[in-house]
Amino acid sequence: MTTLNQAETGVAAAELTAFVTRALVAAGLPQDDAAKLAQLMVAADLRGSDTHGVIRLPLYVRRLRAGGVNARPNIRVISDRPSVALIDGDNAMGHLVMCRAAELAIAKAKATGIGWVGARMSNHAGPAALYATMPLAHDMIGIYFAVGSNNHLPPWGGCESLLGTNPMAVAIPALQEPAIVLDMAPTVAAYGKVRLKAQRGEQMPPGWMIDRQGKPLTDPKRADEGYLLPIGDYKGYGLSLIIGLLAGALNRAALGRNVVDFVKETGKATNTGQAIAALSVESFMPATDFKQAVDHLIRDIRNSQRLPGVERIWLPGEQSHATLLHRRAHGVPMPKALRESLDALARDLAIAPLE
Amino acid sequence: MTTLNQAETGVAAAELTAFVTRALVAAGLPQDDAAKLAQLMVAADLRGSDTHGVIRLPLYVRRLRAGGVNARPNIRVISDRPSVALIDGDNAMGHLVMCRAAELAIAKAKATGIGWVGARMSNHAGPAALYATMPLAHDMIGIYFAVGSNNHLPPWGGCESLLGTNPMAVAIPALQEPAIVLDMAPTVAAYGKVRLKAQRGEQMPPGWMIDRQGKPLTDPKRADEGYLLPIGDYKGYGLSLIIGLLAGALNRAALGRNVVDFVKETGKATNTGQAIAALSVESFMPATDFKQAVDHLIRDIRNSQRLPGVERIWLPGEQSHATLLHRRAHGVPMPKALRESLDALARDLAIAPLE
Q1: Residues A235, A241, A246, CA angle at the centre, nearest 5°?
Q2: What pTM was computed for the model?
Q3: pLDDT for the residue B192
Q4: Tens digit of pLDDT for each residue in A99-112?
Q5: Which of A158, A188, A285 sits opposite B306 (nearest CB)?
Q6: Composition of chain B by helix, strand, coil, percent to 5
Q7: Contact state of B312 with A86 under an 8 Å Cβ cutoff
Q8: Given A180, A238, A308, which is nearest B241 (Cβ)?
Q9: Of B113, B158, B246, which has the smallest distance from its Cβ to A83's Cβ?
Q10: CA dist A294 to A60, A178, A179, A195, A302, Å?
Q11: Residue pLDDT, tens place only, A100-154
């Protein structure tokens, strides 16, 4: 969970969105697509997904320029039933593919109660919560699955990384309370956290990774020699596999040995798979009744007895929501390293830098 | 996972089913309902779910006789859309409710690609895998969620058990390989395992439970003073909450403080909630193509490199499948304590005992 620092001030979302749009247009995207993608990337930063938002822009641009992503795609529905569809993303930026998938899932849920839309030939699409939360405005529950963009997780008992930190997110609407939004990978630690420890010269706690002997690996500089550990031992392995099958194999997208490392192989299509479901609350009861029940449960949980030393019990997504409110008012924090990488990108693309 | 003991021999499934049917008829169920329920309970034992099958019969009979469960229910669909329905179980045995729900979900998936059916006023229905595997025969993926029948899990940071070991199961069809079946609770240990440790006079490993100070609780005889721990810390808490909302609150079934302990309050309706989804593989591609891809992935995983000392990499559900094959041929094991409790039940109900 993101730790909220109320003292942070940063770049206004509109400014950041304009900069990202400029960069994506310079990298070859049509204006409308660039603007939509920029809005989604900044939305990730606003919610506190610092590792999955604008920080990825230089990599995205590198992939676009290397031909690893299609800047002018024809995203199309290749299989369509009343409540299920499969989209071929034509190797577009994943955000554009999954935005289209979410819209289609919502339309199907309006008509039949639920919509499930899978995508193939997509790409990294930012944080899972971005799409799981899209159905909320329609009084729908959102469920999202994705195949991770590289493999760092072996099967339980194994030492060959055939699986990824395949994320899932579920968003459930509330009335006066923030929606419940669970966004998680089935590994103890995300790989981004390992990289961060390495950058900071810190050790990892035991339980994050193991080495080829199955012993705890705590030096993040040696991460290439080791493997992430799943949550709940074989349970997290099972979750990663199931998410991979629903988001990948079922959509004829990459899974297992076919997964392309999107950082290392910038010129190669990843055939990333994702899936989103929208489930209409009104199919069960008036939406307000449900949302009131969710509020009630949220308050029961928040006000329940705490262990010694625990100041507050949080609901999934509550801290991200607080971050969202803060950053909408005070802007997105811009650490020095991020600012420098965006300035370098601006020079490289010959566009106006972020002010 | 169940450890397979190839030396076990036991009672033939047909004999056990006939006995359970007799007992349920004596407890007031119509013959057809009793036979269907018995078949499902024995199916749980056949797959190795020893804690969720016939061992529960005395409790079920106690609840039926105490009026806690309705032996002559009118199970009916109270909300119906093309791809979503809500069933009111009229406080029937959960197996009968969820069997009906699975049939309806499969029919909807045939018509529209996916069916999602929730249930309220249901009861304990045995292992989650029982229902998640029902769509497999129709080339569908099955997804099942349930609210656990008592609360042993606090919110993360809390010490008030507002949540249960809410299980989920997902079943994915394969071609020549056994289907992939993940059946898991979001806690490190199931409560049944804690009870088993107490019976055997063994200690629990740290990580299963904590006490009211948040310290590891390892004496299973003190389980009432403690709390189960979720997998992956706040992640397992989030999973339990989400599963509870999808299976409980969304169906106007019990969740949080409303959950009735079905062991302690045998005369009280539990309003248990469950949900099942069936997703048609043919909506995405010819089923054989998908199942071949699943076989391929299964073999890649099984044959991948192992950590030192690991003899075999298992797929989720593979050991249960091996148990099923063995028990179909050699019968369901009948430990002395179980045999005695079934004999006592037979005397109590004045029915012919298990031979």
Answers
A1: 125
A2: 0.96
A3: 83
A4: 999 999 999 999 99
A5: A158
A6: 45, 15, 40
A7: no
A8: A180
A9: B113
A10: 38, 10, 9, 37, 12
A11: 999 999 999 999 999 999 999 999 999 999 999 999 999 999 999 999 989 999 9
Q: Does residue A308 come out as left (phi exceeding 0), alpha (psi in the -120 to 50 range) or beta?
A: beta
pLDDT digits (tens, 9 = 90+) for B119-159: 999 999 999 999 999 999 999 999 999 999 899 999 999 99
The segments of chain B whose pLDDT lies below 50 read: 1-7
Specify the residue for token string 């989103």.
A276
Closest of A162, A152, A158 to residue A228, by C-alpha: A152
- Three-state secondary structure call for residue B171: strand
Q: What is the pLDDT of residue B9?
A: 64
Which domains can be identified in chain B, with CATH numbers?
A: 1-65+330-355 (1.10.1530.10), 73-187+230-303 (3.30.1370.60)
- How far is residue B61 from each of residues B37, B50, B263, B345, measured CA to CA in Å? 12, 18, 12, 9
CB contact under 8 A, A283 and B86: yes
B242–A182: do the CB atoms touch at under 8 Å? Answer: yes
Q: Which amino acid is at A115?
A: G
Whole-number pLDDT of residue B199: 87
Parallel/antiparallel/unpaired status of strands A84-88 and A114-122: parallel
What does the DSSP 8-state code read for residue B22?
H
Rounded alpha-carbon distances, angstroms, from residue A221 to A150, A319, B161, B328? 18, 30, 40, 51
Cα separation of A187 and B170, whole Å? Answer: 19
How far is the C-alpha of A121 from the C-alpha of B308, rounded, in Å? Answer: 37
